[in-house]
């Protein structure tokens, strides 16, 4: 059976889809996937052994100049890549208009969420087969259920397995390549993989543990099961970059945490993805001998850094989900967002969620007005957003210390 999967973005959403591929590969022997994904995330599907072709799309870039996308031939190449193969089914796992429109060029039947289950209900009009998937659960579980209903196997109750094949990651961190893969061109990861892993779920990272939020207090998430895989790196990674302004842990706190790590003799590596993040990383690292600002890395290079780390500390960011998929013990910090719905999920994942009165607000801008008491206790500028004052560097370090004292993380 051959299936076309449409899940274009974001980084976290792409990673949330991986366990569903593993479920399908176990339920339907021999099933193969081609995956339509944003060009900036095209490396990720190639790490899963059930994926034959990765088809990059450039919706984000094309939105800026529709005429250029058409005149350059990129759009025609992309649509041709969808129709050149016949599929037994197409699954739009995104549930947005942008992905639903892409499905118009795909082989029927096209499966997707019904109007009550999709983030953009109008998207359901584009599907031949619509499925109800209840809200109120973690995104990964919703995608797993959609796949099961679309492909006709029982909804899995087994612990999730991202299924990533570490042999497809680079041995060392890599800088971004100057070469780009044009939208509509395809990447064939299996062609370069060792014969022993082609089409097989072997040498993968198995995830075990209860659903996120299970047994969770309002403030502190439980560690989701035992940590799978030993890690050999004697360094930490601080994932300080994210999108929304409200999801940023205060820079002052990152600096204080870096000072704690430096005093304890733990090297810390700071990745970055844009100029603002690079400058912040340099400020965090200034004058601390064990703190390193990494060069700009490709997504594969970042994965290689994460895969060998002893542990990570992360805000709510796609790279935090990547760390979870690679079974790296991670302390994830949540202010305005709800980890029970979109938190990094897997073994060794600890969710620290603010219990501030307005958290989680799920807002990109903070509307909280500091009280007089807030102003007397906090620097309302340097410690903004104030929901993160409940997650101080001391709290985070205390949760991080058990991971640092372990020589091996056992399966």
General description of the model:
It is built from 14 helices and twelve strands. By secondary structure, it is an alpha/beta fold. It has two domains: 2-197, Rossmann fold (3-Layer(aba) Sandwich); 236-404, Rossmann fold (3-Layer(aba) Sandwich), CATH 3.40.50. Helix 1 (11-27) links the parallel strand 1 and strand 2 (32-38). Helix 1 (11-27) runs parallel beside helix 11, helix 8 (251-263) packs across helix 9 and helix 8 (251-263) runs parallel beside helix 14 (393-404). The radius of gyration is 21 Å and the shape is globular.
Topology summary:
Layout: E1 2-6, H1 11-27, E2 32-38, E3 51-57, H2 59-62, H3 66-71, H4 74-83, E4 89-92, H5 97-103, E5 110-113, E6 129-131, H6 139-151, H7 189-192, E7 236-239, H8 251-263, E8 268-270, H9 275-285, E9 291-293, H10 299-307, E10 311-315, H11 318-325, E11 330-334, H12 339-342, E12 349-353, H13 372-377, H14 393-404
Parallel strand pairs: 1-2, 1-4, 2-3, 4-5, 5-6, 7-8, 7-10, 8-9, 10-11, 11-12
CATH first level of the largest domain: which class? Alpha Beta
What's the structural domain tally?
A: 2
Structural class: alpha/beta
How many separate helices? 14
What's the overall geometry?
Answer: globular
The rounded distance between the terminal residues' Cα atoms is: 33 Å
| Name of the CATH homologous superfamily of the largest domain | Glycogen Phosphorylase B
What's the architecture of the largest domain, going by CATH? 3-Layer(aba) Sandwich
The strand order across the widest sheet is: 3-2-1-4-5-6
Share of residues in helices: 25-40%
**Percent of sequence in beta strands:** 5-15%
CATH topology of the largest domain: Rossmann fold
Largest sheet: 6 strands, parallel
């Amino acid at each position: 059976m051959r299936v076309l999967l449409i899940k274009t973005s974001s980084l976290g959403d792409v990673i949330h889809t991986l366990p569903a591929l593993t479920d399908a590969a176990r339920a339907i022997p021999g099933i193969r996937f081609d995956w339509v994904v944003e060009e900036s995330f095209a490396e990720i599907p190639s790490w899963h052994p059930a994926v034959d072709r990765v088809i990059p799309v450039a919706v984000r870039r094309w939105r800026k100049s529709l005429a250029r996308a058409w005149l350059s031939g990129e759009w025609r190449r992309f649509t041709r890549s969808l129709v050149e193969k016949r599929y037994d089914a197409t699954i739009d796992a995104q549930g947005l208009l942008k992905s639903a429109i892409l499905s118009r060029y795909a082989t029927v039947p096209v499966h997707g969420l019904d109007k009550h289950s999709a983030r953009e209900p109008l998207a359901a009009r584009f599907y031949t087969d619509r499925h109800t998937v209840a809200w109120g659960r973690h995104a990964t579980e919703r995608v797993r259920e959609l796949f099961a209903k679309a492909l006709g196997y029982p909804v899995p109750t087994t612990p999730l397995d991202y299924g990533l094949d570490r042999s497809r990651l680079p041995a060392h961190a890599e800088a971004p390549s100057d070469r780009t893969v044009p939208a509509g061109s395809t990447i064939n990861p299996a062609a370069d993989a060792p014969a022993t892993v082609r089409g097989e779920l072997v040498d993968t990272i198995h995830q075990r543990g209860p659903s996120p939020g299970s047994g969770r207090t309002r403030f502190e998430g439980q560690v989701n099961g035992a940590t799978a895989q030993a890690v050999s790196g004697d360094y930490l990674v601080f994932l300080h970059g994210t999108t929304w302004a409200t999801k940023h842990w205060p820079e002052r706190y990152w600096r204080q945490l870096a000072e704690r790590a430096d005093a304890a003799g733990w090297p810390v590596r700071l990745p970055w993805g844009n100029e603002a993040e690079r400058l912040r990383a340099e400020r965090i690292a200034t004058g601390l001998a064990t703190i390193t600002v990494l060069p700009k890395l490709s997504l594969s290079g970042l994965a290689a850094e994460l895969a060998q780390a002893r542990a990570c500390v992360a805000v709510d960011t796609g790279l935090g989900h990547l760390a979870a998929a690679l079974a790296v013990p991670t302390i994830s910090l949540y202010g305005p967002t709800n980890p029970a719905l979109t938190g990094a999920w897997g073994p060794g994942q600890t969710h620290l969620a603010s219990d501030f009165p307005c958290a989680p607000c799920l807002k990109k801008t903070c509307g909280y007005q500091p009280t007089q008491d807030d102003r007397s206790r906090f620097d309302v500028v340097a410690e903004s957003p104030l929901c993160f004052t409940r997650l101080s560097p001391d709290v985070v370090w205390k949760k991080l210390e058990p991971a640092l004292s372990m020589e091996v993380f056992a399966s």
